[in-house]
Specification:
3 domains, WH-like_DNA-bd_sf, globular, about 240 residues, alpha+beta, Arc Repressor Mutant, subunit A, zinc ion binding, Aspartate Aminotransferase, domain 1, Herpes Virus-1, 3-stranded antiparallel sheet, EC 2.3.2.27
């Protein structure tokens, strides 16, 4: 039985264009954009129909191996939407935008971030790798510039000299990270998306995102692990 995809309208096309130009968008911005696109093109609008609106776009993107995906920010737990290329969910799709040694630096930064305790890597540690690149060594000044570009392009986020993966990067590369770092990369027990900035249950080993920890344990006076029911050993952020 073939289910016909709902019709793409100019409102859908405008929404997609704007999202493409941004790369990633917070859910509140996406809701506002949804309303604006429907108003401009005089298309039926319902405030609670954003997911349906996006799934119509996705059904038309399917043959192009593209998809609008929803993910959440690890720092504040807010939902975001990003346009994802399903064919190359790895670093290879960044290849058209960056030189080989820049990609190698990104891979090394990614290693440091994912293998760290808290999902962050210091700029010092990343910059120290610049002159160890196999493709072509980089001066520290150059490497600083490249990191800045990765932040501008929303692959990395920086806070007080500490780098982590941007929400866009996590949404786009989640599968790649889970496949390539399967010993360390884990999904959050609450929201089931990749969790780098997280807390781990000392008894059963499940991980929970910091925003999910905040939300899940908010009302509990004696926080217990949702999996094994042992006392949760960490401070609730």
């Amino acid at each position: 039985k073939i289910v016909m995809a709902a019709q793409m309208t100019d409102a859908h096309r405008r929404f997609l264009q704007v999202l493409m130009s941004h790369g990633i968008m917070e859910a509140s911005e996406a809701r506002t954009l949804h309303r604006r696109c429907c108003e401009i093109h005089k298309v039926y609008y319902a405030h609670d129909k954003l997911e349906d609106f996006i799934s119509t776009i996705n059904s038309h993107l399917q043959p192009l191996y593209m998809q609008i995906r929803k993910g959440k920010s690890e720092s504040d737990g807010r939902a975001h939407y990003a346009l994802v290329n399903l064919v190359e969910t790895e670093i290879t799709k960044m290849a058209s935008d960056y030189a080989e040694n820049e990609l190698e630096l990104f891979r090394k930064a990614m290693d440091l971030i994912i293998l760290s305790e808290n999902g962050f890597a210091s700029s010092t540690d990343i910059l120290n790798l610049a002159d160890q690149l196999k493709t072509k060594k980089m001066k520290k000044k150059e490497a600083e510039q490249v990191l800045k570009v990765f932040v501008e392009d929303k692959w990395l986020s920086e806070r007080n000299g500490e780098y982590t993966l941007h929400t866009r990067c996590i949404i786009e590369m989640e599968q790649y990270i889970l496949n390539n770092y399967h010993d360390v990369a884990r999904k959050c027990n609450i929201c089931h998306s990749l969790a780098l900035q997280s807390q781990v249950c000392e008894s059963c080993g499940i991980v929970i995102h910091l925003p999910c920890v905040r939300k899940y344990f908010r009302a509990q006076t004696e926080p217990r692990c949702p999996q094994c029911n042992d006392a949760w050993p960490w401070d609730i952020p």
